[in-house]
Amino acid sequence: MATIYVEHKPYRVDATQNLLHACLSLGFNLPYFCWHPALGSVGACRQCAVKEFRNPDDQQGRLVMACMTPAAEGTHISIKDADAVAFRAGIIEGMMQNHPHDCPVCDEGGECHLQDMTVMTSHDYRRYDFPKRTFRNQYLGPFVNHEMNRCIQCYRCVRFYREYAGGKDFNVFGIRNLAYFGRYEDGVLESEFAGNLDEVCPTGVFTDATHKHHYTRKWDLQFAPSICVHCGLGCNVSPGERYGMLRRIVNRYHGDINGYFLCDRGRHGYEFVNSTQRIRQARLRRDEGLRPITKTESIEYAAKLLASSAQVIGIGSPRASLEANFALRTAVGPDRFFAGIAGHDRRLLNLVIEILRSTPAPIASLRDIENSDAVFVLGEDVSNYAPRMALSLRQSVRKQPMAIADKLKVPRWLDQAVREAVQDAKGPLFIATIASTRLDEVATETCHAAPDELARLGYAVAHALDNHAPGIDDLPAETASLAERIAHALRRAERPLVISGPGCGSESVVKAAANVVGALHRSRKAVCIALTVPECNSLGSVLLGAKPLEEAFAAVREGSPKTVIVLENDLYRRAPARDVDAFLREARHVIVLDFLENRTTARAELVLPAGTFAEADGTLINNEGRAQRFFQVFVPQEDTQESWRWLRDVFGAAGRHEFAAWENLDNIIRTLVTDTPGLERIAQAAPPAGFRMAGDKIPREPHRYSGRTAILANIDVSEPQPPGDPDSPLAFSMEGNPDQPPSALIPFAWSPGWNSYQAWNKFQEEIGGPLRGGNPGVRLFDPALQPSDYFQDLPKSFQAPDGELLMIPLHHVFGSEELSNHSPGVKQLSPRAYLAMNEEDAKRFGLSSDDNVEFTIDGANYQASLQIRPDLPSGIAGIPAGIEPFTGTPVPAWGRIARAS
Ligand code: SF4
Ligand code: SF4
Ligand code: FES
Q1: What is the DSSP track for 33-55?
Q2: Cα 485 to chain centroid, rounded
Q3: Among 95, 98, 76, 61, which Cα is nearest to 23's?
Q4: Among residues 225, 278, 591, 620, which is most buried (max CB within 10 A)?
């Protein structure tokens, strides 16, 4: 820490930081553009000028850029000094010479950092009297809109895209006095993090192209604190709604998880909420198909059906909230509650839970991953399976080389100087996956092999670290040597990390990763572990103790249960179509609760309209075992309500009196924590509905929210009372306490004078650090005191039987996830069905690139065009995960080529 003096008053600040960071952390309003808490300082814009004095008696001082000056002990500065104020106003005036002043038609208007800084510096009149510079804009794909005239040349975009996120197809192009930020030609931005440009750019050059289709100003949006539902990482998001339509998603800062950035699947996958395939009314099967019925009719019908059914079984879901799954488990009983995932997937998730519960190594958050200085990724294509984690890994490779900058006494926040000092040096990152991944380009070494071979490599690394760990005797010399190099790098590191997960479908791989962590821990290394999971509540649904889906199929086949309730789950994505067909045929009555039409709802007798994450409250457990609460953004149309409310209503009407007590979310959470050992802490994930700030609720709407009386003028010209919310301390209104709420309840970032995303500065304990009061959510697993025994079931060397290939799922950031696929932009970027293998295997089967190949997996027939991928190991074929016709295909599994044309 250091003491600095601002306007002669002493303040304690972080001595390793710069003056801008210090001033903003202290709460001062000091304008800036090119600096970004995650990107560091480059001193490009000259906006953050302050006067620095040699000592308290110095009257003259000199102007310095706060972002380029260390917060050294005894520094005296003035933000209010007249020279500094005039300098900052001059800089803005210069920037505004060419800025188009098109705020009324700019999508950034109302949440623009340039607007905020212009107001902060009091610039209000344009003296320059000549035409403005203009540019041609580019088509950058379905997510990012381009309007180059608004650029102020701060260079943040190119620094984020190329240096932070590793993108290659975006740059700054210069000619004479012009700088152009874009691609070398029109085209879809290749980085899956491109959408962050909307928030990184301090003006309206880059804006959300999906929001443009149904644009609403920030001040007219209604927000709620929420959690991304498009993978298992649990990034925090701030969804905005107007007129019953979800308009956009922006990042909601979480110091341990997503920080300032989301992936594009999470940012732009939201349009499923507005899909034409939404189910908004209950439907009952009549002879002629599913027909709408009223809510009352549907409850009466379901209650009658349940009352007459001797046995009812429930199928839960990893994309439904903990509360919805728990309501179903309570309704049908734990013995008749089944996980909505196949047995193999459930076994993998149980293994993940077992490891997370028994490991003495801390479970790494994304922030911990960024700070790791040697990483071993075993089996997981992180970029496609847990996208935001890949962005953290890209930062981790910078950690060890930072020693070069430290030696030269270059402060870490001085970004360009650090990059200059470090050049291309990268810290150890070893990636062992089935096929190549986008992170390979920053890896120290990569290895592409069959899952069993990856596991054998992992076991060998563990053995190299600790010879008590089981080793592999018949490892090829090359692999053994790689294992030694990985072990050496992990052993040398101060904060080593091992990443794995169920993405490639192999238990052996996950066990081998756990052995590496155990071996490092035994050698007294401060090792961390990170395991991925596929869906937003994969861990939550399994922690409720559901049985495998196959057992539900068997139970119905054997004729005992006659009625099946399916919760927010398209079973055709979970199991082979022939099995699901038979199951739904044999069950006499099928009730489905869901929000989108799918093949399962099409087979139901009764469909009940469930709320999406934007229309419901609940708890999700992410890959770290962190329980986080999401809140209703808006009150849904028609009869849509949370699944747990449907189940309460239906079973209550069927005479189950215990459901009567579930009046609000807190009631169900109370029962859940009492009934489910291990989940007690979920009650602490967010304050209960009764929480008040000085007696007031927390407003979901900004205080400038407009047109309230007009919104429902077709119904009543008087403003109706806003809907009540029994489930949270948030109000569907602009009224409420304007102060900072607890972090789990912050619906959107705003602070006086700070309308842009930069307002998050005002919510943090220290800039870029945790939110005040701690980051949202509560961890459910504590590190174990002792390491558990090593896994011993070592796989044999991989050998494909004659004429067969091991079919494995290849994940795609766009396309593999169910819900985001309903967003047109995501759909546009999704791959079509393919079968991929290497050239040698293709030749072996007499196939050539683009052949239409007929093949079988587990007895089912498929057809797809052939892609030759040199990175795939021999004996392995890849199919795109989650893409038709492969949804529900039980992979990994052996497959056979039937014919090619
Ligand atoms: S496009 Fe935006 S982020 Fe990039 S240099 Fe211009 S103003 Fe800065
Ligand atoms: S990484 Fe996962 S949780 Fe985070 S924004 Fe992307 S899809 Fe959502
Ligand atoms: S923010 Fe300091 S020079 Fe740009």
Answers
A1: SS-BTTTBB---S-TTEEEEESS
A2: 32
A3: 76
A4: 620
Hey, what are 168's tokens?
Answer: 């290659």
Percent of the chain at pLDDT exceeding 90: 93
pLDDT at 525 over 80: no
Burial zone of 190 (CB within 10 Å; 0-12 exposed, 13-18 middle, 19+ buried): middle
**pLDDT-based confidence at residue 168 (cuts at 50, 70, 90):** very high
Strands 730-731 and 834-837: unpaired
What is the DSSP track for 756-795? SGGGGGGGBSSTTSPBTT--S-EE--PPPSSPPPPP--PP
What pLDDT shows up at residue 359? 94
CA torsion sign for 782, 786, 787, 788 is negative
Token pair, residue 741, equals 């709420």
Q: DSSP letters of 665-714? A: HHHHHHHHHHHSTT-GGGGGGS--TT--BTTB-EESS-TT---HHHHTTT
Distance of CA 350 to the CA centre of its chain: 22
Q: Please, which pLDDT band fits residue 126 given cuts at 50, 70 and 90?
A: confident
Residue type, 579: D
Residue 180 φ then ψ, to 5°: -120, 130
Q: Residue 155: nearest ligand to its CA?
A: 1
Query: pLDDT per residue over 381-411, tens digit each?
Result: 999 999 999 999 999 999 999 999 999 999 9
- Is there an atom of ligand 1 within 6 Å of 140 CB? no
Tell me the CA–centroid distance for residue 216 and ligand 1, in Å: 23
Q: What are phi and psi of 604, to 5 degrees?
A: -80, 160
Closest of 41, 51, 52 to residue 16, by C-alpha:
41
Does 712 have pLDDT greater than 80?
A: no
Atom number in ligand 3 closest to CA 49: 2
pLDDT per position as a tens digit, 831-865 = 999 999 999 999 999 999 999 999 999 889 999 99
Cα of 714 vs centre of ligand 1, distance in Å, is 42
Query: Is the full-model pTM beyond 0.90?
Result: yes
Q: Which residues contact 746 (CB under 8 A, 6 or more apart)?
A: 225, 252, 740, 763, 771
